[in-house]
Amino acid sequence: MTTPNIFILASDNSPQLLPALRSNPSLASSQDQHGYSLLHAAASYNHHDLLRTLAHEFHADTSIKDEDGESPLFVAETVETAQILVEELHCDLQLKNDEGMTAEDKIRSEGEFVAVADYLKEVRTRRSNGSSAVSEASGGEVQRPPPLPPNVTVNMSTATEDDVPDEVDPVFKAKIEELAAREDFQDEEGQRRLKELVTEAVRGVERDAEGRDTRRRVG
């Protein structure tokens, strides 16, 4: 009995194909003498369910190349087929054949399935713009911190180990917690009191630092 040609079965979307592949799954990734694969056949003849089955069930490589270095995307003749390959099955949109052309370039140069080339261009442009936006948001421009609240300033200076307390003053901490629990904490009066507490604490640190410095000079 003659063994059926699986590439013809794929082109015809024959019901005999899947049973043959399930009995020998390695056939799903086979190629003929020209590198033509079952995925190329399914894409060329718009057999969408077969495309999905080859990729999902049999894990066939959707970017598999034929002898010209062309993937199944190069033989897509409808936008729907191209969409399935690119958006569902993640075929490499930027893959180039042996002539240095992408699928978009090759299809447009042949002039027969321009809608497919236009779709591939649209996807490429969309992805390029998306990458640029991410790059700009993450590293293309310095992200400045939000402005400080009114009447708050930051003084950047170098501190020594002696200037940094081992722990927060428990009395100061208790006052801050008590103030924060008040209903008027966010109001003008609460913020005025907070400013006074902070000022008092800073002056206390300065006095302690001056005392340590005096002791160092005297000692």
Radius of gyration: 35 Å
Structural class: mainly alpha
Query: Outline, from the CA principal axes?
Result: elongated
Report the major sheet.
none
Helix content range: 40-55%
Specify the number of helices: 9
The oligomeric state is single chain
Distance linking N and C termini: 107 Å
Mean pLDDT: 82
Describe this structure in words.
This protein is mainly α and 219 residues long. It contains 9 helices and no strands. The radius of gyration is 35 Å and the shape is elongated. The N and C termini lie far apart (107 Å). The relative contact order is 0.06. The model has no long low-confidence stretch (mean pLDDT 82).
Summary?
The chain is mainly α and 219 residues long.
Structural descriptors:
219 residues; elongated; mainly alpha
Write the layout of secondary structure elements.
Blueprint: H1 6-12, H2 17-23, H3 38-44, H4 48-56, H5 79-88, H6 103-110, H7 114-140, H8 170-180, H9 188-218
Helix pairs in contact: 1-3, 3-4, 6-7, 8-9
